[in-house]
Design goal:
alpha+beta, two-stranded antiparallel sheet, two-stranded parallel ribbon, 3 helices, 43% helix, globular
């Protein structure tokens, strides 16, 4: 799972073994503990689990989702994912 600060482009990459909403919530909470809570988050459509959205809203975080197949909206994440993939292959 990858998170990128939109202002600084700083990426944070997390290994995730389970893709359910609870596993994602655990990683998001870990990220918040390290870097603080954002005011809003732009998320891929893979993060539309209602329970996860409710948690983020309860933390006063405004959630936005990218449009499906929107390559420009996901460009920063895709670039980071490609870099991580290349690094792991070596």
């Amino acid at each position: 799972m990858t998170a990128i600060d939109k202002l600084t482009k700083f990426p944070a990459v997390y290994r995730i073994t389970n893709r359910n909403w609870k596993a994602k919530k655990t990683i998001i909470m870990e990220h918040f503990a390290k870097f603080g809570k954002p005011k809003n988050m732009i998320m891929d459509n893979k993060f539309k689990a209602e329970q996860l959205i409710q948690y983020l809203n309860s933390e006063n975080i405004e959630v936005h989702h990218t449009k499906p197949n929107s390559h420009t909206a996901n460009a920063d994440i895709e670039t980071s994912s490609n870099l991580v993939g290349k690094t792991n292959r070596n």
